[in-house]
Every structure is written in C-alpha cells, then in structure tokens.
Design goal:
seven-stranded parallel β-sheet, Rossmann fold, 526 residues, single chain, 33% helix, alpha/beta, six-stranded mixed β-sheet, 60s Ribosomal Protein L30, Chain: A
Length: 526
C-alpha cells in the first residue's frame, strides 16, 4: 500500500473491474470493492476514500462528489463519462479520468462481425432454425470480396476497420475531412466526398464522433443518395442516425439491411426497429471483450494511481493541474491558443496537415508547452472521437497524424505578444484589453473578436464589392454587426471580415462564390 505524507491512499471500486487492474491498485493502495451500493450507501462510505472507480451504472453527481471530502480522482472504467458530472468535479478540484484507448480493436472487430452477420443473414437464419424451420432459400446472402466498403470517419476505430476490410479483399473508401489523401493511401483507403461514399458503396459503416455537425448525420436526404440495395452498419454512436428514416429506407428497398450496436435511446424501445426482419441488433457490446476488459482495468488503474501520486494523467477528462512552470504571463494566453486552434480547424475545414506554431514577444521566452497543448485541443476537440485536454493533447495529435512544430520569434512585432499558426492558411492572434483578438489572416492585418457568426471573403478590391455583399445579406435578413477589409493595395487582393448577428443561408454563400471577383467565401460559427 502506497503511503504519501503519512496518508494511505484508499480506493473504492463501486462497479466490476478486471482482476489485473485490481492487482495493480492493491500493490500501491488500499482497495475496497463494494458492488451494488445504493446511492445513500455510496454517499455514506465515500468520505473515507481518495479515489472512486465506476463504470456506467453509478451516477457520480454533485451530491455524491460533495460527500467525497477526501476525493482526488474519479475513474471511469471505459470511454464515456456521461454518468459523471464533470463540471461539478472540476469545481471541487477532483480530476476525472477514463480509459478511451482500450476498446479500439474490440469495437473494430464488432463492426466487422455485425457487417458479416448482416451480409450473410446469420441471426435470421439462426432464429429460423431454432424455430424448427429449414428454409435455406430465404437466407441467400452477399459476399464481401470485391465489394466496396465506405467508411464515414477514418479515426482510430475506422482505421482498424479499414485494415480488416482490406484483408477481406474489399475496396475501402472513406470520407473524413480531416484525414489527408496521403495518410489514407498508407492505409490502402481512397478518400472520396461524403456524397460519393454514399452513392458508390455496397456497405457503409459509421465511425465519426457526435458533434453539432454530425448529429443525425444520416437521415432521409442521405438515404436517398445511397446506392440502392446497400447495407448500413452503425457501431459508433446512436445519435449519428435517424432511426425512423432508416426504417423507411429499409421498407422501400433503398437499403437492403442494417446492423446496429448503438441507438438513439438506450436501451432501445423502438418496436418497429426491434421487429424489422432486415435489421441485425446487438445491445451496445462493441467494446465488450475479455481482452478489452483486461486493458480497461489496467489503464484506469494506471490513470487513478497517476493522479493520486501526483504524476500527469494521460486521459484526464477535465482541466489538469499545471506545473510550476505555468506562469502568470502564460495563463491569459491559454484561451487565445485554444481559440486560434479552433478557428484554424473550422477555417481550413479539411485535413490539417503539418502546422507551425510561432510565439512572438515575451511569450517566446516562456516554456510554451501548455500553449501548444491548448492549440492542439482547439484544433482537434471537435474532430476526433476522444476528449482532448492539456495532458493528452500531444498524444492525441500523434495518434491522428498531426505534425506540429514550434518556433520562437524574439524580434519585436506589432504586438507585445502574438501567437501565429502557419499551415495551409495563416492566422495570428493576441490579447487586447485581456480579450482574444484575431489580428492576421493569410498575411493581412485585421482585428476582430472571433465569436458568433463570422463571414470571410477573399476577393479583388473593386468598386461596389462591399455594397454588393451587404445587399445580399440584407435581402436574406442577416444583420451585419461589424465589417472590415484588409487589402494588399488599391484594387488588389483583399480579405473582408464581417461579424454577423444571424446565420447565413447557404443560397447566399453560393451566390457569393459565383461572383467573378470573389475567390472564396466562408461562414464560420465560433
């Protein structure tokens, strides 16, 4: 049992955990396994413990956290932390850790398993035989060899699915706006547009995180674009799919079949879905294997011990403690660095490629690791299917092939301190009156606070351009809050930045893009 400052660590395990993880914990702490405690019993016992480990059944809410007078860390033995009030834990200085990398292989293998079961109608045939029937002609399936598998998302699990599909001699294509064609080619995957994947694939498998942009990613409009008679697999997130639209597509024959491990609401009560003969269903068991259970127990044990012993936790879900090197000079710039990363990712809207982060002014003399981690968090937090924080940022960047270099500029600049991201595009920012401002876009000096709706256009500086854009937005009932133009010279290349009070209808953006003097137009919601 580990002792620190004459205090023994005590860990309460409130839900089942693999014996390997328990053995690791018991080497360095007192471990009590108490399963099936009521909420009142758990609150009564928790004040004695420094760490709590749960899975998905225990509600770790504010009231429970208040009871944990000595609690330093809550460990979730799995990926999601929906049952943990992370904000409440953060307010109380309690670190929340999870084990997000342990079920990648299991999830990928399960996606392939239900895909194969779907293609060969294995569950239907099994059920028929158990009913005493022998109806071989009803269960003629489809072969996978030579068929096209379309992956929506080529992250950690999607990449593993691609490897296995290639081994089955399938043609693997994918849509993922943040994966380069070069990286995909290394995985023997051809990158296509979203619509091309839908229209040309025999099988489609979803492997993307749920964001505001991807919620109900596949609905009636998307099913209409599917190759008729295709199959759909979703072992990622239930919120990616409109189940009613799926059932309609199955009933019309637009879709030949579907295999689901995840649902809009769990456990699912959708009777129409449960009864449909062309659907293969499993109860969210994609990550449930003996091997994954061993890995998750070891990973969460290691994370909990790291927090208790004052070491960095790779998978801290909430804000980690920062080292003494984190000075008052750096602290105000964390938000700016994260905001610049988020702005850059939305502006590029595709593969991020190699990036350089430049620190100019007094920042150049500081240890800027925490700022670079903040940039990575902003770049990736809405792209990857993994929580990104200041502790695991570089690890996540490495996992997703993001190359990032740092550069220090000690010469004077226009501002006292400035952070610049250079890649496919260039964006720079600083703090003005303690507020983040973007001050440079592709070499053009600007000044705006990146919040709300922002429209950017690159155009030739011609008489009437500002009025033309304003008239189009006005006709669409879009109010302009502020506007500025940065240009190389009279009638030269220019960037226009408009802060807007309202979203811009897609038809307006398309009209602007057709203007001869406008090279590109983009609306960002920040």
């Amino acid at each position: 049992m580990q002792q620190c400052d004459n205090v023994f660590f005590k860990i309460l395990v409130a839900e089942p955990l693999g014996k390997e993880g328990l053995e690791l914990l018991r080497q360095r702490a007192q471990v009590d396994v108490r399963l099936k405690l009521s909420a009142a019993e758990l609150r009564a016992d928790l004040p004695d413990y420094h760490a709590l480990i749960v899975r998905s059944a225990t509600a770790v809410n504010a009231a429970l956290l208040d009871a944990g007078k000595n609690l330093s860390v809550v460990g979730r033995a799995g990926v999601g932390v929906d049952n943990i009030d992370v904000a409440a834990a953060t307010q109380r200085g309690i670190t929340v850790v999870n084990a997000p990398t342990t079920n990648i292989v299991a999830a990928a293998e399960h996606a392939m398993a239900i895909l194969w079961a779907l293609a060969r109608k294995i569950p239907q045939a099994d059920a028929s035989l158990r009913r005493g029937e022998w109806q071989r002609e009803q269960f003629s399936g489809a072969e996978l060899v030579g068929k096209r598998l379309g992956l929506i998302g080529l992250g950690r699990v999607g990449s593993e699915v691609a490897r296995r599909a290639n081994g089955l001699d399938m043609q693997v294509v994918a849509f993922d706006p943040y994966v380069t064609a070069e990286r995909a080619a290394q995985m023997q995957v051809k990158m296509l547009s979203f619509d091309e994947v839908l229209a040309t694939s025999d099988f489609i498998s979803l492997h993307t995180p749920v964001t505001t942009e991807t919620k109900k990613l596949i609905g009636a409009a998307e099913f209409a674009k599917f190759k008729r008679g295709a199959y759909l697999v979703n072992a990622a997130r239930g919120a990616l799919l409109d189940e009613d639209a799926l059932l309609d597509a199955l009933d019309t024959g637009q879709l030949a079949g579907a295999a689901l491990d995840v649902f809009e609401s769990e456990p699912t009560r959708n009777e129409r879905l449960l009864r449909h003969p062309a659907v293969v269903l499993t109860p969210h068991i994609g990550g449930s294997t003996a091997e994954a259970a061993t890995r998750v127990s070891l990973e969460i044990a290691g994370e909990v011990l790291a927090v208790l012993e004052g070491r960095p936790a790779r998978f801290a879900v909430n804000a980690p403690m920062v080292s003494a090197a984190f000075t008052q000079t750096l602290q105000p710039y964390i938000g700016l660095a994260q905001l610049l990363g988020r702005f850059y990712a939305k502006w590029v809207g595709g593969p991020l490629g190699a990036l350089e982060v430049e620190y100019a002014g007094a920042l150049a003399a500081e240890e800027t690791d925490v700022l670079t981690a903040s940039v990575i968090k902003g770049l990736l937090e809405h792209i990857v299917d993994l929580r990104v924080n200041l502790v695991n940022a570089r690890l996540v960047a490495q996992m997703h092939g993001l190359g990032l270099a740092e550069r220090k500029l000690y010469e004077p600049t226009r501002f006292e301190n400035m952070i610049t991201l250079r890649g496919e595009r260039v964006v720079a920012g600083t703090l003005l009156l303690d507020e983040p401002h973007i001050v440079q876009l592709d070499g053009n000096w600007v000044d705006f606070t990146p919040r709300g709706y922002v429209m950017l256009t690159r155009h030739r500086d011609r008489p009437g351009m500002i009025g033309k854009v304003g008239a189009l937005l006005g006709a669409a009932d879009v109010n302009i809050a502020s506007m500025q133009v940065a240009r190389e010279g009279p009638r030269g290349e220019a960037i226009m930045v408009l802060k807007l009070d309202d979203p811009v209808p897609p038809a307006v953006t398309e009209t602007l893009r057709r203007e001869l003097d406008i090279q590109w137009s983009q609306v960002l919601e920040l």
